[in-house]
Design brief:
This protein is α/β, with parallel strands linked by helices and 256 residues long. It has one domain: Rossmann fold (3-Layer(aba) Sandwich), CATH 3.40.50.300. It has nine helices and ten strands. The strands form two sheets. A six-stranded mixed β-sheet has the order 6-7-8-3-9-10, with helices on both faces. A four-stranded antiparallel β-sheet has the order 2-1-4-5, covered by helices on one side. A hairpin with a 2-residue loop joins strand 4 and strand 5. The N and C termini lie far apart (59 Å).
């Protein structure tokens, strides 16, 4: 099984903050990898480096077998990956179809292919009746689905998703989960960040946990299930949150 994401000592520093600190990570091809961590742990910074949006301060990374330090190779790698960033990065004054068409042409796909894939993606995401709406008018869930459609349009080998389920209703969440399962079934690799541990347990084959910029836990979901406790237990133990349940507010404490 080939490795599609490999980092060695990957580090990103912002002033005095080490947002990612010596990350050593390996993700195999065809896996659904859940990348977990508390707020501010370094998840989004890691994705930005892995997708070439942010240069690392130090360390090495190979994506789809290529060294991203080589700009020519990095450009080719970007054509083989799809990304749903944390801020979605949609163009407000385009319709959904216009946006998808723009993305398809940026990937140098033939216009006939772009049209066909736009039709299929808009139908799958339930956006086929929103043709005249600008993305500015979309609900949050609709924007999430459009962003995922754009990431899927080029048929990526590797898909990066930064909190795709945040703020999404149950119906949209089901659609997104089904689409992602289909991607993995056809051989793609998915790298997902999420705070919703229940979704990670249902979808992912592997998990990694980052805290204070460091990878503190990595295992397959089978290994997690073989250990006593749930993914939530593993997560809390890994990030040092064992004492969280002992905290209380004095004015809400039970009467003696």
């Amino acid at each position: 099984m080939s490795v599609v994401i490999e980092t060695t000592g990957l580090t990103r520093v912002f002033g005095s903050l080490r947002a990612v600190d010596g990350l050593n990570l390996s993700v195999a091809s065809g896996r659904f990898f859940g990348f977990l961590g508390p707020n501010g742990a370094g998840k989004s910074t890691t994705i930005k480096m892995l997708t070439g949006l942010l240069a690392p301060t130090s360390g090495q990374m190979r994506i789809l077998g290529e060294d991203l330090a080589d700009e020519n190779r990095a450009r080719e790698v970007r054509r083989r990956i799809g990304v749903v960033p944390e801020n979605l990065a949609l163009f407000d004054n385009l319709t959904g179809r216009e946006y998808l068409t723009f993305i398809g042409r940026m990937y140098l796909l033939p216009i006939a292919t772009v049209r066909t894939r736009c039709d299929e993606l808009l139908a799958m995401m339930g956006l086929e009746n929103e043709e005249k709406k600008l993305t500015l008018e979309y609900s949050h869930g609709m924007k999430k689905k459009l962003a995922l459609a754009a990431a899927l349009l080029p048929g990526p080998e590797l898909l990066f998703l930064d909190e795709p389920f945040e703020g999404v209703d149950a119906v949209s969440s089901r659609v997104l989960r089904d689409v992602l399962r289909s991607c993995v079934k056809r051989g793609a690799t998915v790298f997902l960040t999420s705070h919703v541990l229940e979704i990670v347990e249902k979808l992912c084959s592997d998990v990694g946990i980052i805290a204070n910029g460091k990878l503190v836990y990595q295992a397959t979901m089978d290994e997690v299930q073989q250990q006593n406790g749930s993914l939530e237990d593993r997560f809390i133990a890994a990030v040092g949150g064992d004492q969280a349940g002992t905290q209380h507010l004095s004015w809400l404490a039970e009467s003696p």
